[in-house]
Amino acid sequence: MTLSIRNGSYGHKPGQPLFSGLELDLSPGQIMAVLGPNGAGKTTLLNTITGMMAWQQGETLIKGKPLSAYGERELWRHIGYVPQARANAFAYSVLDMVLLGRSAHLGTFARPSAEDIALARRVLDRLEIGHLAKAYCNAISGGELQLVFIARALAGEPSILFLDEPESHLDFKKQLIILDIIERLAREDRMICVMNTHFPNHALRIANSVLMLGADGIHRFGPTQAILTEEAIRACFGVNARIDTIDAEGRILRAIYPVSLDRPSPAHMEM
């Protein structure tokens, strides 16, 4: 399974692209982090890649074939989508919510089989939330709900997983749990994972590649360490930062330390 974008372009207003001429190729087991300031188009990008919104130019290819070559049900057997976790207004049980992820594998009026239910329970157990199967989605924490949404996507047995800010609004521990799950899916299941994030340090921790979207419509794509530099952070986010490396528990980790806002000097402002 491969994921490619050819000449991808999109903008809400004529002449003001969020991104244009986007080219990338991802292979099994790779994690791509999408970074950028608010309004740069991170969620829009996921929507265009998955076909929920149409590219203005260009196309998405899965296994070398454009999305138009797939029927909707067939397409969603290949891809999974994890939205941002928000309060759920519907009193679905956790198990029923996860079973919704089997929709692409069921007939129009078919009910989940015993095998579908067993698969959903295995996914919950893998994410260590099997004990929540009978709980209701509007009565669990935000971190637990995020894990449920990941479980729902995994129940569809996708080869490509898209995650929209999966670790936002979570405490340190739950953020690490989510990142570890994404790493395991890429390493053990050879899944392609595409993750929007507001945390550059999370991209440094787990991503093979980074797509950085600028507010000016300019994008940068490539290997994480080549793209996520101090200069790029300043240009994209308007923040002066330092990147350092530490050896923690036998693992070499790089971390970004924000230092100051990149503001014009007083002398420059007077000119």
Topology of this structure?
Blueprint: E1 3-10, E2 19-26, E3 31-35, H1 42-49, E4 57-62, E5 65-66, H2 72-78, E6 79-82, H3 94-99, H4 114-126, H5 142-155, E7 160-164, H6 172-189, E8 192-196, H7 200-206, E9 209-213, E10 219-223, H8 224-227, H9 230-237, E11 239-248, E12 251-261, H10 266-270
Parallel strand pairs: 3-8, 3-9, 6-7, 7-8
Antiparallel strand pairs: 1-2, 1-4, 4-5, 9-10, 11-12
Helix pairs in contact: 4-5
Written overview of the protein:
There is one protein chain. The chain has 271 residues and is α/β, with parallel strands linked by helices. It has one domain (3-270): Rossmann fold, CATH 3.40.50. 33% of the residues lie in helices and 27% in strands. The chain contains ten helices and twelve strands. It has helices spanning 42-49, 72-78, 94-99, 114-126, 142-155, 172-189, 200-206, 224-227, 230-237, 266-270, and strands spanning 3-10, 19-26, 31-35, 57-62, 65-66, 79-82, 160-164, 192-196, 209-213, 219-223, 239-248, 251-261. The strands form three sheets. It has a six-stranded mixed β-sheet with strand order 6-7-8-3-9-10, sandwiched between helices. Helix 6 (172-189) links the parallel strand 7 and strand 8 (192-196). Helix 4 packs across helix 5. The longest helix has 18 residues, at 172-189. It is globular, with a radius of gyration of 20 Å. The mean pLDDT is 92.
